[in-house]
């Protein structure tokens, strides 16, 4: 494939520390995208769509036991920008069944919902029965899903946990939450980090002056450490055991203040972190070394809203964007002519070398092994959220639609 063809099909660009600064600047300006992967665009046969008459801001699978072979069958959604926003619980039971004609069967059913005050800015399951939400009103809420009669109720609420300095009456949107039962951590536009415990009515700890910029996303790095990303392109590490409001480390792309919107860490190698931001670029970081990303990959044509490693198959990574795309990044090191993500047709023509002793995302050659699939080629409105668990992926969009996809990851 020529560079000209590569430009026409919007392929990736990548920067490694071994490359020079001039190369990096060209990559950041999207002027030099070498051909490093194959991008497919197609809605898969085993994708099911549910139109729900509300813009979906967040989608999350209900957790299943890590040691279980059980596939996820229930997920939650949170809406935004509607006259009345809701938290809803859905069943995805029956997915994967095949008719005699070898067609996939599946149906998305609403189990229950409840009104949510403000936009749902973020959402996570605390456990199988409790869901935590972050609201544009600054409130953090725990909802209880009563599975015996399929209802939702408010279990706990921290009203205006985020608020603008000098006035408890002026709320600041709570922009992100992360849960590690019983602990909950929230971040907001007010630059605060709050630590809660599920059974406590009081906020356990507050980092009042954590960030002078808006924080957009948070995740646990380890049990006592968190990572945040903010509106000036910084990735920050925090130790919840330390006193004071200062981060333990700050990472950023030199000279780049493009807002970062999402962050996720590798499930088994926690020093590997992925972020995405306003420019649609995917950044991969090794937080053990340096303060700059290991690689920068041009990806979406607009803001990247979420990035997620597959929790048990972390060579697979997923991103979604304002441009209406949902990308699957496959960095698994396998033989070239493997069955494609689309199922049944051999569409991979990239040479794949074995990555034995290192992680695929840190290898200097990992981009040569990347295969990227756009799973929603017909979508035109923003895909705001995704979640992947087992063989299933769920995403929600401003098109007032939920998509559930089944795929066996190898």
Automatic annotation (TrEMBL):
<dbReference type="InterPro" id="IPR001680">
    <property type="entry name" value="WD40_rpt"/>
</dbReference>
<feature type="repeat" description="WD">
    <location>
        <begin position="297"/>
        <end position="330"/>
    </location>
</feature>
<keyword id="KW-0853">WD repeat</keyword>
<dbReference type="InterPro" id="IPR015943">
    <property type="entry name" value="WD40/YVTN_repeat-like_dom_sf"/>
</dbReference>
<dbReference type="InterPro" id="IPR036322">
    <property type="entry name" value="WD40_repeat_dom_sf"/>
</dbReference>
<keyword id="KW-0539">Nucleus</keyword>
<dbReference type="InterPro" id="IPR019775">
    <property type="entry name" value="WD40_repeat_CS"/>
</dbReference>
<keyword id="KW-0677">Repeat</keyword>
<dbReference type="GO" id="GO:0031080">
    <property type="term" value="C:nuclear pore outer ring"/>
</dbReference>
<feature type="repeat" description="WD">
    <location>
        <begin position="253"/>
        <end position="295"/>
    </location>
</feature>
<protein>
    <submittedName>
        <fullName>Nucleoporin 43</fullName>
    </submittedName>
</protein>
<dbReference type="Pfam" id="PF00400">
    <property type="entry name" value="WD40"/>
</dbReference>
């Amino acid at each position: 494939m020529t560079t000209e063809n590569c430009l026409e099909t919007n392929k990736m660009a990548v920067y490694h520390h071994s490359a020079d600064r001039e190369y990096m600047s060209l990559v950041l300006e999207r002027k030099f995208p070498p051909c490093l992967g194959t991008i497919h665009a197609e809605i898969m046969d085993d994708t099911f769509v549910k139109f729900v008459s509300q813009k979906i801001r967040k989608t999350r699978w209900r957790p299943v036991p890590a040691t279980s072979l059980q596939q996820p069958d229930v997920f939650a959604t949170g809406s935004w920008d509607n006259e009345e926003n809701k938290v809803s619980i859905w069943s995805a039971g029956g997915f994967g069944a095949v008719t005699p004609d070898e067609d996939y069967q599946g149906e998305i059913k609403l189990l229950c919902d409840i009104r949510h005050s403000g936009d749902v800015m973020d959402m996570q399951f605390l456990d199988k029965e409790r869901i935590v939400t972050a609201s544009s009103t600054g409130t953090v809420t725990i909802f209880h899903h009563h599975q015996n009669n399929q209802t939702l109720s408010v279990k706990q609420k921290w009203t205006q946990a985020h608020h603008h300095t000098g006035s408890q009456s002026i709320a600041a949107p709570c922009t992100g939450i992360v849960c590690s039962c019983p602990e909950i951590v929230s971040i907001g536009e007010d630059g605060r980090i709050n630590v809660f415990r599920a059974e406590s009515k009081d906020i356990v700890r507050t980092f009042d002056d954590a960030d002078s910029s808006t924080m957009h996303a948070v995740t646990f790095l380890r049990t006592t450490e968190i990572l945040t990303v903010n509106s000036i392109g910084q990735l920050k590490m925090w130790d919840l055991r330390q006193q004071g409001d200062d981060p333990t480390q700050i990472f950023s792309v030199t000279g780049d203040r493009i807002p970062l919107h999402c962050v996720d860490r590798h499930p088994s190698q926690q020093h590997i972190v992925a972020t995405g931001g306003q420019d649609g670029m995917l950044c991969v970081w090794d937080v053990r070394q340096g303060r700059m990303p290991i690689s920068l990959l041009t990806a979406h044509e607009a803001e990247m809203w979420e990035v997620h490693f597959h929790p048990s198959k972390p060579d697979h990574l997923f991103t979604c964007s304002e441009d209406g795309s949902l990308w699957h990044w496959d960095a698994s090191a396998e033989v070239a002519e493997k069955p494609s993500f689309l199922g049944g047709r051999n569409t991979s023509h990239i040479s794949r070398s074995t990555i034995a002793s290192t992680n695929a995302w840190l290898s200097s050659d990992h981009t040569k092994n990347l295969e990227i699939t756009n799973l929603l080629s017909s979508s035109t409105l923003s895909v705001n959220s995704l979640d992947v668990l087992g063989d299933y992926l769920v995403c929600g969009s401003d098109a007032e639609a939920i998509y559930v996809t089944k795929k066996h990851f190898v």
